[in-house]
Amino acid sequence: MDFEAVIGLEVHVQLATESKIFCGCSTKFGSQPNSNVCPVCLGMPGVLPVLNKKVVEYTTKAGLALNCKINRKSVFARKNYFYPDLPKGYQISQYELPICEHGYIEINIDGNAKRIGITRIHMEEDAGKSIHGENLGDPSASFIDLNRTGVPLMEIVSEPDLRSGEEAKEYLQKLKAILEYIEVSDCNMEEGSLRCDANISVRPIGQKEFGTKTEIKNMNSFKNVQKAIEYEIKRQIKVIKDGGKIVQETRLWDPDKGITISMRSKEEAHDYRYFPDPDLVPLKLDEDFIENIRKTLPILPDELKEKFIKEYELPEYDAMVLTSSKSYADYFIEAVKHFNSPKKISNWIMSELLRVVNDKDCDIYEAGILPEYLAEIVKLIEDGKISGKIGKDVFEEVIKTGKKPSVIIEEKGLVQISDSSELENIVKKVIESSPKEAERFKNGETKLMGFFVGQIMKETRGKANPKLVNDLVNKLLS
Fold first, then answer.
1. Whole-angstrom Cα distance, residue 319 to residue 310?
2. Could you give the count of Cα atoms lying within 13 Å of 228 in the half-sphere of its Cβ?
3. Are 76 and 115 part of one and the same domain?
4. Residue pair 280/49 in contact by the 8 Å Cβ criterion
């Protein structure tokens, strides 16, 4: 029996506000434990929450960018459960009437577009963080840091339209790109600004009913999301084929062992006992508010990709890579402003610069070379001042030192030799020292051109103009 997976993702996104959702405490990451707290976010008796308007604006903006219907009326609810890092004993969220519904994202799988539905986007407050003793030198103790309590989140819930770990990864990357473009979150997964839970079930192909699902938590990268989903699909299929039954539960991903581990049995949604929060009136948005937010939307990745193809005459693949991240797109645009050779700039970004970005696991602007410096290297090659090989050496030196390419070239004497009379003497010398190869070349072994070019480059320490070298070798050996 063949099976297919049914996958839905719940993505929690920390909004880039300076203060929390219902109080004025700072959302700054990395502060001393329990320093960004007040009676409101600590859930003290008698306090009242006050909604942060910027949270509403950012969530509305995300809903519009994700093709959602913006509900004119939405309601905050109390989600009741007990956990050490939840001071009030409930979380303020939205349940029956969220702010955004019925959106979608289009992803690209093997050159084919696939639309993934978005069920809802709702606003909620984050919980605190439990820190267990093994990380603090006391294995027997647990500690609570409530700085995150009340940090504004939006939860983006997809339809169960995903069918593989690869599709889930593509969806998350596209979602992250859109959120970065509209600047509502920094989407920093290491700091917890973007977290993903995956609901996974399998069913025989052709069956309409969903299978029993498991939820996987604790995934801190897109790669881990993909691996965890792929493992869980295989695990569930094996359980069913072996005659067992899937248990609805929450599981954790162990990236070191490459397996999912059972954490707890999963409660049903109604066990949370939602009810409208009596301290927060229903949120009502008028048309003017929504339209004013719509006017602030920037150009989004799909539209920018088409613009790159049309205006910069880039291949679709280049445009897709360069618009997959706002920082990539910004870097490319800035570099082209300094030297208008889009395809060559694109080649250098995708081959040399993204290699450094991947090696360092950093943002493109943290790789060590400014857009104008990359553009300068490309221009120097185009102008014949340096060779492509020297250009790569200069690129590496800029990464190491931060110096301008022209300064490095001057300091190291790397200017390309393009004086034909100077080069001709060097070419003659190389030919005279290799009489057998010269004779074979004259007799039709033109593949020896590589030999001569290599010897000449060695003689000039890579500074000879390659085109001029080829011309001179042909001229002197014809």
1. 10
2. 31
3. yes
4. yes
Cα separation, 475 vs 478, whole angstroms = 5
Quote the CA–CA distance of 178 and 403 in Å, as a whole number: 34
Question: Is residue 333 located within the same domain as residue 390?
Answer: yes
Query: What pLDDT is stored for residue 271 in this prediction?
Result: 66
Interatomic CA distance for residues 222 and 430, integer angstroms? 54
Q: State pLDDT tens for residues 319-364.
A: 999 999 999 999 999 999 999 999 999 999 999 999 999 999 899 9
Q: Of the candidates 412, 429, 457, which is a domain's last residue?
A: 412
pLDDT in tens, 84-114: 889 999 999 999 999 999 999 999 998 889 9
- Residue 443 CB-density burial (10 A; 0-12 exposed, 13-18 middle, 19+ buried): exposed
Task: Give the domain extent around 173.
Answer: 3-292
Percent of the chain with pLDDT over 90: 72
- The whole-angstrom separation of Cα 330 and Cα 335 is 9
Contact criterion met (CB below 8 Å) for 128 and 85: yes
- Which of 292, 313, 335 terminates a domain? The answer is 292
219, 196 contact by CB (below 8 A): yes
Cβ atoms of residues 416 and 384 within 8 Å: yes
For 128-152, the pLDDT digits (tens) are 998 887 666 777 888 899 999 999 9
Enter the tokens of residue 205. Answer: 């192909």
Between CA 416 and CA 426, with CA 420 as vertex, the angle to 5 degrees is 80
The Cα–Cα gap between 161 and 102 comes to: 13
- By CB atoms closer than 10 A (0-12, 13-18, 19+), residue 451 is middle
Q: What residue type is 189 in one-letter code?
A: M
CB burial of 256-277 (b: ≥16 within 10 Å; e: otherwise) equals eeeebeeeeebeeeeebebebb
How far CA 8 is from CA of 93, 121, 269, in Å, comes to 20, 14, 16
Residue 344 is inside which H or E element, if any? helix 342-348
- Specify the pTM: 0.85
Q: In b/e form, how buried is each residue of 386-421, taking b as 16+ CB within 10 angstroms?
A: bbeebbbbbbebbbeeeebbbebbeeeebebbeeee
